[in-house]
């Protein structure tokens, strides 16, 4: 009875405490999205007529972002954006005719303040083949400016809007067929700063994803044309950050130092794919998801819709290369959605040690590969015997050769020639080494039977391994040959050419 | 806006030179025909009826337009009012009545306004082709009268669209002729049509507001009539971006006339 009462009491106490805690959290949490922290939207975005002289907007090419505005009043801002149709590199040795806002994909970054009056000029270069217009998602009004900016080649249009909503917005071309204009790279970002501005950070960068559709395959060389059917099927050839496979890697990687905070303005132009944006090795401290006013904290991967954006912020603690990917991961490794951020600075082993142990773990292969390690050691000490080579070769044969030539060396009739009692194998040691290193295709006669198939080059094997495998094969299943030495393999490797694409 | 264009149209007509003789000898007769346009003529109606007409085999060249300007000096670039042609009118010619190196005689004439193109045709006793006439003639492939369902044919058109106009234009008549014996309908220059400003009511192709609008605006036409015919749709988008006094570096024309 006593126990029952005290349990009930403590249950009530816990309930009471948890209710109190719950209340406290929800009222203090800036990300909770309650009516208390409502910005008021477009109804509260008009701060009156523009003040002072008109300002010409600073436009930047990706990955650069115009500097913070640090302005406390609404202004008249003049934006001049020029459309260019340009042949540029989409991948190494591959070019594509991009349609661009400002000569780059994505287009120039525009930065204004909430309440600003923007006089927008769209210029279509005389060399353009197409008419173009612009729909800015940061514009309140039908079409987002599209119908006011429809512009023939060699002409210019102008319209004016007041930026009533703060946030990070996509802009894009909306000329028919809209999908094709977007697929050719006609998108970019416009940041509408809140009146109080954004917290200063050490670096701001501009990254935008897009999907591209070419008639030729991924990395097929030369000038590639747009493929409308692939675009309709939503089957892109490339998924890229900043319009090219090489846009943000190597020398062009984003730069920062440890201890610094980086803010990424990330857009997704589409036209089709939704991005699972992720930075390998980092956790976003804050993400203003969908480019809006609230942030989420401690995010691994954030979803960026086509025609949407996000602001991601993180502090770099450990030096190294951080890879930006679309974590719909085949896009990253097979379609190009990779970019790089390099962080310089001293190591901090307390946070990230680097590799501390690098040792073999053989699992259930432990038994069979012991022979390989023994052979390696014996060779190093100059006491390698043919028997050790055979044992090591057997283990390696099992891993590499037996799939086709079979464990018993019999091959498969009519498909893969036998090695057991093989006149072809035993007739010429040098040819046997060449065959392993360089592969063999076309008709051969083995033990009186013709085979016509392809053996790929196995040049990824070390000279040691090739020597051991051949010693094993030429001394097994009734074959009685001499040992093959590492030196013999080295000599053949040095005097023959690898096939294109084969390991050296 | 529409009213302005109509008034200008009248003015342009009165300004145009009088006829100097029939259609060019190098033209072919097409139709009468019924065909399906990407722009349906009326709600629920697909087929367009075309009377027989003659169409120039090739676009008008710099040499031909120079002869016209010399005969009708009011169309010289230094005399034409801005109402009838913008500042880029024939600006690639060396002089007001000289071609020079960047305007070879056999190249198609470009940087001509709709008013100038119309006046040229009228000086020959001809007129500009209507959109439906042009669309019908340009639907032909090398071997068939209607190649619009042929993906390879569509891709060649798209490939031309994808190339910027930064390189000098080829001479007219270099491409192989289509089914009717016409050349350069695709792959060389855009071409003015008589009724270019009636094609796309809305400047924002995504609007599909009113019932009548649906039939004319780009995406409406695309979805209702022939969603695969984006190659033609892009030409409509191009034409609808123009005003009658506009000129561009890749826009020329050819003439048509009723077949008698």
Strands side by side in the biggest sheet of chain B: 1-4-8-5
CATH architecture of chain B: Alpha-Beta Complex
DSSP, total strands of chain B = 8
What is the chains' assembly state? heterodimer
User: How many DSSP helices of chain B?
Assistant: 8
Radius of gyration of chain B: 18 Å
Please render the helix and strand layout as text.
The complex is a heterodimer of chains A (504) and B (260).
Chain A: H1 2-28, E1 55-56, E2 76-91, E3 94-101, E4 110-113, E5 117-124, E6 135-136, E7 155-162, E8 167-172, H2 178-183, E9 187-193, E10 203-212, E11 222-224, H3 228-232, E12 238-241, E13 254-257, E14 261-270, E15 275-280, E16 284-288, E17 296-299, E18 301-304, E19 308-315, E20 320-326, H4 330-334, E21 338-344, H5 366-380, H6 386-400, H7 402-405, H8 423-427, H9 429-438, E22 440-446, E23 449-455, H10 463-473, H11 486-495
Parallel strand pairs in A: 1-2, 2-5, 3-11, 4-9, 10-14, 13-21
Antiparallel strand pairs in A: 2-3, 5-7, 6-8, 8-9, 10-12, 14-19, 15-18, 15-20, 16-17, 16-19, 20-21, 22-23
Helix pairs in contact in A: 5-6, 6-10, 9-11, 10-11
Chain B: H1 2-15, E1 27-30, E2 33-36, E3 47-50, E4 53-56, H2 62-71, H3 114-123, E5 127-128, H4 131-138, H5 151-162, E6 190-191, H6 211-214, H7 218-224, H8 230-240, E7 251-252, E8 255-258
Parallel strand pairs in B: 6-7
Antiparallel strand pairs in B: 1-4, 2-3, 4-8, 5-8
Plain-language structure description:
The complex is a heterodimer of chains A (504) and B (260). Chain A has 504 residues and is α/β, with parallel strands linked by helices. Chain A is 22% helix and 29% strand. Chain A has 11 helices and 23 strands. Chain A has helices at residues 2-28, 178-183, 228-232, 330-334, 366-380, 386-400, 402-405, 423-427, 429-438, 463-473, 486-495; strands at 55-56, 76-91, 94-101, 110-113, 117-124, 135-136, 155-162, 167-172, 187-193, 203-212, 222-224, 238-241, 254-257, 261-270, 275-280, 284-288, 296-299, 301-304, 308-315, 320-326, 338-344, 440-446, 449-455. In chain A, strands 1, 2, 3, 5, 7 and 11 form a 6-stranded mixed beta sheet that branches. A 6-stranded mixed beta sheet of chain A has the order 12-10-14-19-16-17. In chain A, strands 13-21-20-15-18 form a 5-stranded mixed beta sheet. In chain A, strand 16 and strand 17 (296-299) form a beta hairpin. In chain A, helix 5 packs across helix 6 and helix 6 crosses helix 10. The radius of gyration of chain A is 32 Å and the shape is elongated. Chain A starts with a helix and ends in a 9-residue tail after the last helix. Mean pLDDT of chain A is 88; it is low at 11-35. Chain B has 260 residues and is α+β, with helices and mostly antiparallel strands. Chain B has a single domain (23-258), classed as paralog of FGE (formylglycine-generating enzyme), CATH 3.90.1580. Chain B has 8 helices and 8 strands. In chain B, the strands form 3 sheets. Chain B has a 4-stranded antiparallel beta sheet. In chain B, strands 2-3 form a two-stranded antiparallel ribbon. In chain B, strands 6-7 form a two-stranded parallel sheet. Chain A binds chain B through residues 85-87, 97, 126-131, 133, 135, 142-143, 146-148, 150-155, 174-178, 180, 184, 215, 225-226, 228-229, and chain B through 86, 88, 151, 154-155, 158-159, 161-166, 202-207, 218-219, 222, 230, 233-234, 236-238, 240-243, 246-250.
């Amino acid at each position: 009875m006593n126990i029952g009462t005290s349990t009930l009491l403590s249950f009530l106490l816990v309930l009471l405490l948890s209710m109190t805690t719950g209340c406290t959290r929800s009222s203090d949490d800036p990300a909770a999205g309650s009516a208390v922290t409502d910005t008021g939207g477009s109804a509260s975005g008009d701060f009156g007529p523009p003040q002072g002289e008109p300002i010409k907007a600073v436009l930047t090419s990706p990955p650069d972002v115009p500097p913070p505005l640090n302005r406390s009043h609404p202004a008249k801002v003049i934006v001049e954006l020029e459309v260019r149709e340009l042949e540029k590199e989409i991948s190494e040795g591959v070019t594509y005719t991009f349609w661009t806002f400002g000569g780059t994909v994505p287009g120039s970054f525009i930065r204004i303040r909430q309440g600003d009056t923007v006089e927008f000029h769209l210029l279509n270069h005389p060399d353009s083949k197409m008419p173009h217009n612009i729909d800015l998602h940061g514009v309140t009004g039908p079409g987002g400016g599209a119908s006011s900016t429809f512009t023939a080649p060699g002409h210019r249009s102008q319209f004016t809007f007041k930026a009533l909503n703060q946030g990070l917005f996509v802009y894009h071309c909306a000329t028919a067929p809209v999908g094709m204009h977007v697929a050719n790279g006609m998108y970019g970002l416009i940041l509408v700063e809140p009146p109080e501005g954004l917290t200063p950070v050490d670096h701001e960068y501009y990254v935008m994803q897009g999907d591209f559709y070419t008639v030729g395959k991924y990395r097929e060389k030369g000038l590639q044309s747009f493929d409308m059917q692939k675009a309709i099927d939503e089957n892109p050839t490339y998924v890229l950050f900043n319009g090219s496979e090489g846009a943000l890697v190597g020398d062009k990687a984003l730069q920062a130092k440890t201890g610094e905070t980086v803010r990424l303005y990330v857009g997704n132009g589409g036209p089709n794919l939704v991005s699972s944006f992720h930075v390998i090795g980092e956790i976003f401290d804050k993400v203003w998801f969908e480019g809006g006013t609230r942030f989420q904290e401690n995010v691994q991967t954030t979803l960026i819709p086509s025609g949407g954006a996000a602001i991601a912020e993180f502090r770099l603690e450990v030096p190294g290369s951080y890879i930006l990917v679309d974590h719909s991961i085949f896009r990253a490794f097979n379609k190009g959605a990779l970019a790089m951020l390099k962080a310089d600075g001293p190591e901090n082993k307390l946070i990230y040690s680097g590799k501390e142990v690098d040792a073999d773990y053989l699992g259930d292969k432990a038994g069979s590969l012991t022979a390989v390690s023994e052979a390696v050691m014996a060779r190093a000490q100059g006491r390698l015997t043919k028997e050790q080579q055979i044992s090591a070769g057997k283990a390696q044969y099992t891993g590499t050769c037996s799939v086709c030539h079979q464990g018993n060396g019999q091959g498969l009739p009519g498909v893969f020639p036998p090695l057991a009692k093989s006149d072809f194998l035993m007739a010429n040691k040098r040819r046997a080494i060449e065959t392993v290193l360089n592969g063999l295709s076309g008709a051969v006669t083995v033990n009186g039977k013709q085979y016509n198939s392809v053996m790929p080059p196995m040049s990824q094997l070390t000279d040691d391994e090739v020597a051991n495998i051949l010693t094993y094969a030429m001394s097994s299943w009734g074959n009685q040959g001499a040992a093959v030495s590492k030196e013999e393999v080295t000599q053949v490797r040095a005097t023959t050419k690898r096939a294109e694409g084969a390991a050296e | 806006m529409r009213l302005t264009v109509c008034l200008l149209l009248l003015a342009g007509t009165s300004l145009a030179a009088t006829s100097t003789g029939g259609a060019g000898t190098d033209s072919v007769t097409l139709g009468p025909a019924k065909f399906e346009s990407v722009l349906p003529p009326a709600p629920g109606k697909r087929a367009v009826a075309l009377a027989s007409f003659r169409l120039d085999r090739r676009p008008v060249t710099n040499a031909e337009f120079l002869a016209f300007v010399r005969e009708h000096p009011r169309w010289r670039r230094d005399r034409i009012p801005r109402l009838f042609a913008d500042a880029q009118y024939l600006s690639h010619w060396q002089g007001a009545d000289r071609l020079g190196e960047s305007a070879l005689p056999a190249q198609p004439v470009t940087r001509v306004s709709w008013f100038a193109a119309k006046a040229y045709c009228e000086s020959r006793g001809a007129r500009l082709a209507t959109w439906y006439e042009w669309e019908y003639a340009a639907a032909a492939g090398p071997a068939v009268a209607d190649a619009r369902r042929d993906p390879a044919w569509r891709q060649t058109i798209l490939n031309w669209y994808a190339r910027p106009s930064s390189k000098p234009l080829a001479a007219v008549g270099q491409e192989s002729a289509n089914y009717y014996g016409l050349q350069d309908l695709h792959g060389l220059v855009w071409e003015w049509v008589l009724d270019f400003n009636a094609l796309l009511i809305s400047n924002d192709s995504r609007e599909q507001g009113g019932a009548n609008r649906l039939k004319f605006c780009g995406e409406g036409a695309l979805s209702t009539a022939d969603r695969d015919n984006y190659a033609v749709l892009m030409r409509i988008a191009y034409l609808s971006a123009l005003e009658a006094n506009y000129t561009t570096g890749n826009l020329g024309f050819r003439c048509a006339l009723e077949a008698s």
